[in-house]
Amino acid sequence: MTNADTSGRLPDAYLRPGSSSFVDFLSEHAPDLLPGRRLAASGGVGGGGSAASLAPHATTIVACTFGPADGPRGVVMAGDRRATAGNMIANREMEKVFPADEYSAVGIAGSAGIAIELVRLFQLELEHYEKIEGSLMSLDGKANRLSTMIRGNLSLALQGLAVVPLFGGYDLERGLGRIFSYDVTGGRYEEHDHHSVGSGSVFARGALKKLWRPGMDAAAAAHVAVEALYDAADDDSATGGPDPVRNIWPVVATVTEDGYRRVDDAELATIVEQILDARRGAHEGGGRA
């Protein structure tokens, strides 16, 4: 692709039958376009600071399953909106939860710019597969593809530019929501009931353990996810809590048999007000929240 063809014809690489993986296509014909190749090839970040200290970082993502055994089931995923660069707030309104395709969602933690680029490539990968194969990839297949892409970013992770997403979706074959976590080497792990990643994850997981219950509906699960993020923001400076003054709310999405749905701001404002009212009541009553 580096040798320009002035004839007006597409290069032969575009016309040959091959893999249904767009990432494999890029790896073979334009590897420099992959997120894990460019900065590593250029020798990293110049100047006095390290790559990790210069790049904005996304922080906390939570996810939990919901639904009764004999009713509608799915997964909810939520992310705070703060991005940090060292001890500074780089952005207050960053979006960290995205639809991967119609039946799955991905939340990002780690180096923000590379994470967003990886998500866009992942979305394109799933869309490319669907167009080539004429069918949706299985949820396990999607989780495995994301694992491979994270592994391709290992050289940047070793420079401090790690990407650690959280992936969840509705399994059309099993009829339930499932959650997958990863490490920087691409290791894939299925989580049960709930999970959190990012700088505030240790606090969010504690909240999830206390608040999550089997059989919750989607609204209750969204409430639990937002409250877990609130708890994380209470103890982790890199996690941004709901901001009623600026009308900045977490990004919360549900994935069910009906597909991906982003919870609108009006619903989130109501959830946040319920959480704040309960905590004000506990504080005024002599308790602590």
What is shown here, in short?
By secondary structure, the chain is an alpha+beta fold. The chain has helices spanning about 20-30, 35-40, 50-55, 110-135, 140-150, 155, 200-210, 220-235, 265-285; strands spanning about 55-60, 60-65, 75-80, 85, 90, 95-100, 105, 110, 165-170, 175-180, 190, 195, 250-255, 260. About 35% of the residues lie in helices and about 20% in strands.
> For the record, what is the CATH homologous superfamily label?
Aminohydrolase, N-terminal nucleophile (Ntn) domain
Q: What ranges have pLDDT less than 50 throughout 5 or more consecutive residues?
A: 40-49
Instruction: State which percent range the strand residues make up.
Output: 15-25%
Output the radius of gyration.
Answer: 20 Å
Nearest-integer average pLDDT: 86
Which CATH architecture? Answer: 4-Layer Sandwich
Q: Give the count of helical stretches.
A: 9
Q: Overview of this structure, please?
A:
There is one protein chain. With 289 residues, the chain is an alpha+beta fold. The chain has a single domain (51-284), classed as Aminohydrolase, N-terminal nucleophile (Ntn) domain (Glutamine Phosphoribosylpyrophosphate, subunit 1, domain 1), CATH 3.60.20. 37% of the residues lie in helices and 22% in strands. It is built from nine helices and 14 strands. The chain has helices at 22-29, 35-41, 51-54, 112-133, 139-151, 154-157, 201-211, 218-235, 265-284; strands at residues 57-58, 61-66, 74-79, 83-85, 88-91, 97-101, 104-107, 110-111, 166-171, 176-182, 188-191, 194-197, 251-256, 259-262. It has a five-stranded antiparallel beta sheet, covered by helices on one side. The protein has a five-stranded antiparallel beta sheet with strand order 6-7-9-10-11. The chain has a four-stranded antiparallel beta sheet with strand order 5-4-1-8. A hairpin with a 2-residue loop joins strand 13 (251-256) and strand 14 (259-262). The chain is globular, with a radius of gyration of 20 Å.
